[in-house]
Design brief:
alpha/beta, Arginase, Chain A, 8-stranded parallel β-sheet, two-stranded antiparallel ribbon, 39% helix, 15% strand, binds zinc ion
Length: 375
Amino acid sequence: MSERRTGWVYHEAYMWHDTGRTRAFDPELRRWMQSWEHWENPDTKRRLNNLLEISEFSEELVQLKPRPANEEQVLRFHTPEYVDRVRALSAEDGGDAGEGAPFSHGGYEIALLSAGGAITAVDAVLDGTVDNAYALTRPPGHHAERDRGRGFCIFGNVAIASMHALAERGIEKIATLDWDVHHGNGTQQAFYERRDVLTMSIHQDQWYPRESGRLTEQGEGEGEGYNINVPLPPGSGHGAYVETIRQVVAPALEAFRPDLIVVPSGFDGSMYDPLGRMMAYSETFREMTRLLMASADQLCGGRLVLSHEGGYSPTYVPFCGLAVVEELSGKKSIAGDPFEDNSATAGGQDLQPHQQAVIDDAKLLVDRLRQLEGV
Ligand SMILES: [Zn+2]
C-alpha cells in the first residue's frame, strides 16, 4: 500500500461537550432506574486519540486544527428557528436539542466546532493539503434533522460539510456512505430530493431511528433513486459488511462517479458495542476503508473524508479507529488490536444467506442508479 498524507482533526473542546447523566427514556419508568453516565461521553473518542498519541502514530498524520462552522454554513441544512433554539439553550444551562440530544452550557459553540471539523477535513482534502482525512469530532451529526437534534446529534456535520463543498468549493457530486450501526437519517433527509448527492447507509435493521432506514426509502423527486439503504440483520459480521461494500457500495460509486466521498464513520457496528448487535471488528473497518479508497482512487483522485459518529465501547473503538487511519495513511503503527483473535474467530463472521438476501435487494437499487446515470 502506498503512503499518503492523512489529515487528523481533533480538538480538546470536543471532549468538553457534556451530555450529563442519562435515565430511562420513558418518564413513567424513570424512577426505577438509577441514572448512569451517558453513552455518548468523551471516553471512547478521547481513548482513540490517546492510542494514536501513545503509539506515536499521531506523528504520521497531518494535524488539522478545526475552525467553527459559521451560521451561513449551518443554515444551509438547519432551520433558523432550530439554530436559535440551540444557541439560546446553550447560553443558559443547556437542554435537549430535540429527541435525546442533550448538551450543557456552551454546547452550541462546541457543536459549531464539530460541524466545522468536518468542513476543515473536506477543505484540506479539496485544497490538496492532505490526500484524505479523518475528523474525530463531538457531538456526532448523522441523526440531526433539519429542525431538531436527535440521537446524541445536534448539527448534521457531514450534511453541512457536503453542502459547503457543493456551494463554496465547486464540487458537483458527492457520495456519502454511513457505516455507523444506526441509520444515517439526518444525512438522508438533507439530500433526499437531490441527485447531486448519493446517500448510502449500512446499518442494523430497524434499530435507531426505528422508523427509518428501510430499503424502500430511495429518495424523492429529483433525488429518486439516489438514496440507498442496506438494513443488515442483527448479528451481521465481517463478511456481511465487506460484501455490502463490494456488491453494493463500490458498484454504486462507479455508476455515480462522485467528485468526493464522505463517510459518517461510527464504530458501534463492532461486536463489543453496547448500543448495537453487530459483529464487525478492526479488520472489518480496515477492509471497508481499503475498498472505499480503491473506489476513490479510480473515481475522484482518492478524495475521501471520514467524520466520526457513534461507537460506545471505550475499550474497542480506539482499535477500530486506528485500523482506519493506518489504512488511510498507508502506514502501520506499532500498536496491535488485543481483541483481534477473539473477534476474527467468532462464529457468524462469514456472510450468511439471510444477509446476502438483503444485499441482493440492495443490488437492484444499484441497477436503477446505473439507468438513471445512463451507464
Ligand atoms: Zn450509532
